Amino acid sequence: MGSTGEPDRKRRHLSSISPIAGAAAKKHLLSPRADDKKLDVAVLQYQNQKVFQQLEAQKVEYFILEDKCHKLKEKQDIYDDIIVVANKSWDQLVSDLESRSICTRESTSAQHDLQGTGMLGDQSSFPMQDDFISRLLETGATNSCSLDDSTDSVEDEKSRTSETTKNILQNIISSINWMWHVSKDVTSSLRAAFSVHDQETHLRKSVIDLGMEVRSLILSVNDLHLKHRMLASKMQDHSDMLAKFKAEQKWLAGELASSVSELEESRCKLAILKSQKDGSKGAPILFPTLGNKHVIVDAVRDKQKEIQAMESSLKELKDQVSSQMVQINDLHERKIEILKKLGNLQNFLLSIKSVHSSSAFQKLKDQLDKSKAEMNQCQLSLAKLQAEKDNFLWHEKAVTLKDDLADVLEKVSDFSKLRIAELEQDLHKLVHERIQMEAKLEVTLREPGRKEIIAEFKELVTSLPKEMGVMQNDLAKFKESASEFHCLRAEVQSLSHILQWEVSKLQSLSDKFTAQLCQIKRLYSVVGDLTESEQELKLILEMYRRESTDSREVMESRDKEYKAWAHVQNLKSSLDEHNLESRVKSAIEAEALSQQKLAAAEAEIADLRQTLESTVREISKLSEKLKSKHEEGEAYLSEIESIGQAYEDMQTQNQHLLQQITERDDYNIKLVIEGVKARQQHDVVLSEIHSMDKKLQEANTLLNLYDLKAARCDEQLKFWSDQVAELVEDGWQCSTGFSSVQIRLSDVQRETEDLRHNLNDMQTQAEKSRFEITELQIELEMERFTKKRIEEGLETMTMKATSVRTHTDGLAILEKLRQEIREYKGILKCRICNNRQKEVVIAKCYHLFCSQCVQRTIESRHRKCPTCSASFGPNDVKSIYI
Which residue of 134, 471, 605, 799 has the fewest C-beta atoms within 10 A of its own C-beta? Predict the structure, then answer.
């Protein structure tokens, strides 16, 4: 093209429509695609292997967690049945306790009303009762062992059960407290009445036995409550474990879904790559004229090997998929078997007969029987205590009356003797004090100069507040200087924070600058690679020129093709160089900007450092000033403290002196007053002696009155004996009520047996329905499995359809390229003969023809251009290389 000297317009046209350049460009584009395909296939295979390994590990974990979950479910079902039975037995026990507590309360209420104690109504009189009820309600012994505390029904049940337990415990504790009160009264009366040791020991033993029985009852109730609490805590732990296992199952299911989606994506990618391989097999190599035949054959063999490797990997993947499908089928069958076993286990566990035959139920039943036996024993002991109480009441009251009469007489005589001795001692003390006071009066009247000392102390007290005010002003000044120092410290800290922020900015700018330098180095390396590739291409061209042994026409055609291809490569390299230059320019500009920012930041840092240094200097100066002021302040404080101590010492001395003066004055006055009082008291003592004689006479009259009271007490004893008979009748009525309650209990037991029969019938129906549900679940699982199979077949069909579509799209593109090649070849052919390529150009009109047609026109007489009929000579004809 350069030998003919054509204009730039023609050159552009020829370079834009040359097919050899297009073929070379297509080869250049096709070669990296094959490498990318190899890499993609290898990466996909590696990812598939990893995904399969993760799937297997997750399956193992899933099976382990399923086994744990099934075990926990079985345990939970057992505990649920045990809790249901325990709740029923607890309800029965509560009802029995309520009925019996009501009976005991009715029996004790009559005696309470007669005595007027009112123990049940007043809760403040029994702190033990409130503590016991609050402990039971806090620990939750009356709950129905339900986990859903948020619902209204559970709250209603809680309130009801708490009310019933409160009533029962109030009744029981009131009866126990009444018995304790009675026993205390009995013991106190017997201790006062009888001096015989045998009766006292007998009463003490009975009281101790009663206390031990009551304590054993409380301990048994506490043990039941603790057992109930332990069961509730175990149930809570099992529910927490179940929630954890459910969460882990959900997480594993999510991971399985994600791994399955990754597998599907990898399968899709493999199918696409396979379709691309199929398309690349049918696509022909357009221009193989540039290389040697051996090189082409080697390339074809490499591609065939790659395709074979891909096919083998695809076969392996298919085998793995088939093995996984077999595993999934096995797992599905196992799941169906496990579901059947679960249904059987649920039916077995939910049957009442199995619950009754369980060891936990039998243990609970034994415990209930023991508690009932203990309750019966307590009732018998209560009856015995009531009988003993009735026997001891009459003896107690008779003895108390006699003891009261004797105690009254002894107390009156003892009181009169003690009073006489005290009065005699008071007289002796008064005489001795009078003598001491007269001596002190004489000493105080002799001491001079008391008023002068008092005046000096008053002057000192007035001068001290002024000095204290001056010291307080100095302290306020020192505090102001300390606050200024703290403000300066805060300013220094803020400046240090600003400096750190600027330093971080500088570091970020330096990081950006290093990144840009790395990009520039990479660009330079790319430029070097391009130059090396250009040199290699030139060497290849020279080798081809030296090794060629063809005819002259073939050589010319090859030279033309090589020149065109070299021109295209030059254009590409120029484009790349232009792009590189633009990138380098942008990088240089960015570097310049970053350097400017760095310079500005360094200048700011230098300014900030200067300001910091100045602030540090000021801080050091201020700190020195502060230290000096602190030292002055400490000196002032020490002076103030010394002055304050001296002031306090002076005040204490003043107070002591004033106290001494006032004490002496008061003492003198008291001596005079006490002298008068001593005379008056002497007269009063004489009058009291006369009054004591009168009181002795009155005590004699009181003895007569107490005799009358003793007669009245005998009458009250008769009245109490009548009441005891009435109480015996009330006890007989309570026994009749107890028999009626037992009859009701037998009726209730019959009703419960009928209900159990009904429950057995309902459970058989429930078992049948559960069997039907399990069968339906198995059918559902089978349908889901078949649905999954159909979906997988649809996915495979869609993959095949996509591969066929990609193959058809590749054929259409090939046909279009062939049509373009034909058009380009038609443009390059001569217009006169339409067989040979254009090889010659006429310099006058710049029209292209083949050399043979132009020679014919030169040999003829009319040497004119066939297209524009312009005349030309043989020198105007010049050859070209296309």
Answer: 134
**Rounded CA Rg of the chain:** 60
Encode pLDDT of 524-577 as tens digits.
Answer: 777 777 777 777 777 776 766 665 544 566 667 667 777 777 777 777 777 777
Place of tokens 């004809």: 877
Cα–Cα distance measured from residue 186 to residue 397, given in angstroms and rounded to the nearest whole number: 10
- Return the exposure string of 808-844: e unless at least 16 CB atoms fall within 10 Å of the residue's CB, then b: eebeeeeeebeeeeeeeeeebebebeeeeebbbbbee
The answer to whether residues 849 and 833 touch, using CB atoms and an 8 Å cutoff, is: no
Per the model's pLDDT, the better-predicted residue between 127 and 519 turns out to be 519
Give the closest residue to 499 by CA, choosing from 619, 592, 615: 615
195 vs 293, which has greater pLDDT? Answer: 195
Cα 305 to the chain's mean position, in Å? 57
- Measured over the CA atoms of residue 459, residue 460, residue 465 and residue 466, the dihedral's sign is positive
Q: Angle 152-193/197-282 helices, nearest 10 degrees?
A: 160
Neighbours of 104 (CB within 10 A): 19
The C-alpha torsion from 299 through 301 and 305 to 311, rounded to 10°, is 100
pLDDT of 12 > 70? The answer is: no
Three-class secondary structure of residue 857 per DSSP = helix
What would the mean pLDDT of 83-100 be, rounded to a whole number? 72
* Dist. CA 267–CA 276, nearest whole Å: 14
Confidence band, pLDDT 50/70/90 cuts, at residue 206: low
Side chain identity at 799, as an amino acid letter?
A: M
Nearest CA among 28, 18, 23, 27 for reference residue 564: 18
Question: Which residues, other chains included, contact 436 with Cβ-Cβ below 8 Å and sequence gap of 6+?
Answer: none
- Cα 26 to Cα 285: distance, rounded to the nearest angstrom: 10
Q: How many CB atoms lie within 10 A of CB 119?
A: 20
Phi and psi at residue 860, to the nearest 5°? -75, 170
Mean pLDDT score, 289-306: 55
Residues in the chain, total: 882
The two three-digit tokens of residue 325, written as one number: 């499908």
pLDDT category at 119 given cuts 50, 70, 90 is very low
Under CATH, which number does the domain 829-879 receive? 3.30.40.10
Residue closest to 468 by CA, chosen among 654, 634, 640: 640
Distance CA 581, CA 446 (A): 125
Q: Is 881 helix (H, G, I), strand (E, B) or coil?
A: coil
DSSP per-residue string spanning 218-241 = HHHHHHHHHHHHHHHHHHHHHHHH
Two tokens, residue 815: 């046909």
E strand or H helix that includes residue 710: helix 552-828
Question: Structure tokens of 747?
Answer: 């009726």
């090889």: which residue's tokens? 839
DSSP string, 456-513: HHHHHHHHHHHHHHHHHHHHHHHHHHHHHHHHHHHHHHHHHHHHHHHHHHHHHHHHHH
More reliable by pLDDT, 631 or 235? 631
Other beta carbons within 10 Å of 265: 13
**CB 85 within 8 Å of CB 355:** yes
Question: Do 279 and 810 touch, CB atoms closer than 8 A?
Answer: yes
pLDDT tens-place string over residues 693-736: 677 677 666 666 766 766 676 777 677 777 777 777 776 776 77
SS (H, E, C) 67-95: HHHHHHHHHHHHHHHHHHHHHHHHHHHHH
> Who's near 220: CB < 8 A, 6+ residues apart?
371, 374
Total-model pTM: 0.22
> Beta strand 848-849 with 877-879: parallel, antiparallel or unpaired?
unpaired
In 3-state terms, what secondary structure has residue 864?
A: strand
Count of beta carbons in the 10 Å neighbourhood of residue 182 = 19
**Tokens at 543, concatenated:** 């080798």
* The Cα angle at residue 383 between residues 380 and 389, in degrees rounded to 5: 140
